């Protein structure tokens, strides 16, 4: 009996040595406990916003295709921030931004007449009964936007940058003076603040007119125009990339709707 126990003991020792030899040492690879706690805290802000039980079920059904946790984390919006959400529409991101910035922050929800007509009931229900008390609606038509200088920690333009190049009498969407409009957005963001952009990618080298025809715009145009008014490109994410999209179809085409190749860009206003 003693011999059997000795053999088993030796087997466990050998197995343990094998594991130690094949596994990296935790002490050399794991971050410091304090650093790990900070990273976890930052990530959990966005995960909690997405997981909030107050979000409508219709929003949740879009999450798989829109990856909001990854997008919000990439933009880096923090509790206490004042955020300008341009052309907020039905408020898919309004809800989560309000959760992220918390009671000490605020989301300024930009709307105009054609956007409200488009969003309809979704916008009304989003803000009914003061359910998002840290949000404030800013009504401004396309060419009347006037922002107080250095008043926002961050701003977002989600799936609407291409509309800078669209106009429609039918829907009341006036042609926008692009440089003036972008300069106003830049003026409103604080030095060191962030501008987050998501839009549908157009074929490389495409003219800005695809913003009107396909509702897509080449990211190179976006970068060049925002740098021209003073922003600096600070990062790009492929969280919403789709290499299967050949960029030739309009974004409302049933074959590609909701599955377009989208870029996610983060800009900074210099200090």
Structure commentary:
There is one protein chain. By secondary structure, the protein is an alpha/beta fold. 40% of the residues lie in helices and 18% in strands. It has 12 helices and 7 strands. The chain has helices at residues 2-22, 26-29, 33-51, 57-60, 63-66, 68-75, 92-101, 113-119, 121-126, 178-188, 210-213, 219-228; strands at residues 82-86, 106-111, 135-139, 152-158, 189-200, 232-237, 262-268. It has a 7-stranded mixed beta sheet. Strand 1 (82-86), helix 7 and strand 2 form a beta-alpha-beta unit. The longest helix has 21 residues, at 2-22.
Descriptive tags:
globular, 12 helices, Rossmann fold, 18% strand, alpha/beta, 40% helix, single chain, 271 residues
CATH-defined fold name: Rossmann fold
Sheet with most strands: 7 strands, mixed
What is the domain tally?
1
From N to C, what is the helix and strand string?
A: HHHHHHEHEHHEEHEHHEE
What is the number of E strands? 7
How many helical elements? 12
Beta-strand content estimate: 15-25%
Which helices and strands, and how do they pair?
Elements: H1 2-22, H2 26-29, H3 33-51, H4 57-60, H5 63-66, H6 68-75, E1 82-86, H7 92-101, E2 106-111, H8 113-119, H9 121-126, E3 135-139, E4 152-158, H10 178-188, E5 189-200, H11 210-213, H12 219-228, E6 232-237, E7 262-268
Parallel strand pairs: 1-2, 1-4, 2-3, 4-5
Antiparallel strand pairs: 5-7, 6-7
Helix pairs in contact: 3-6, 3-7
């Amino acid at each position: 009996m003693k011999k059997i126990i000795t053999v088993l003991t030796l087997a466990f020792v050998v197995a343990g040595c094998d594991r130690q030899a094949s596994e990296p040492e935790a002490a050399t690879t794991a971050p410091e406990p304090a650093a790990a706690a900070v990273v976890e805290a930052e990530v959990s802000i966005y995960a909690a916003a997405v997981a909030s039980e107050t979000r409508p079920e219709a929003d949740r059904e879009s999450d798989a295709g829109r990856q909001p946790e990854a997008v919000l984390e990439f933009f880096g919006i923090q509790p206490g921030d004042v955020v300008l959400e341009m052309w907020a529409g039905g408020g898919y991101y309004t809800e989560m931004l309000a959760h992220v910035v918390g009671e000490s922050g605020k989301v300024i929800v930009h709307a105009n007449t054609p956007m409200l007509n488009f969003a309809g009931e979704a916008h009304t229900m989003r803000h009914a009964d003061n359910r998002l008390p840290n949000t404030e609606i800013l009504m401004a038509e396309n060419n009347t936007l006037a922002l107080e200088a250095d008043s926002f920690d961050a701003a977002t333009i989600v799936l609407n940058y291409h509309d800078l190049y669209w106009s429609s009498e039918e829907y009341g969407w006036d042609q926008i003076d692009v440089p003036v409009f972008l300069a106003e957005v830049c003026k409103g963001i604080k030095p060191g603040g962030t501008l987050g952009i998501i839009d549908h990618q157009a074929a490389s080298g495409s003219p800005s007119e695809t913003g009107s025809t396909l509702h897509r715009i080449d990211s190179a145009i976006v970068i060049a125009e925002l740098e021209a008014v003073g922003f600096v490109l600070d990062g790009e994410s492929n969280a919403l990339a789709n290499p299967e999209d050949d960029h030739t179809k309009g974004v409302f085409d049933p074959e590609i709707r909701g599955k377009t190749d989208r870029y996610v860009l983060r800009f900074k206003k210099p200090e």
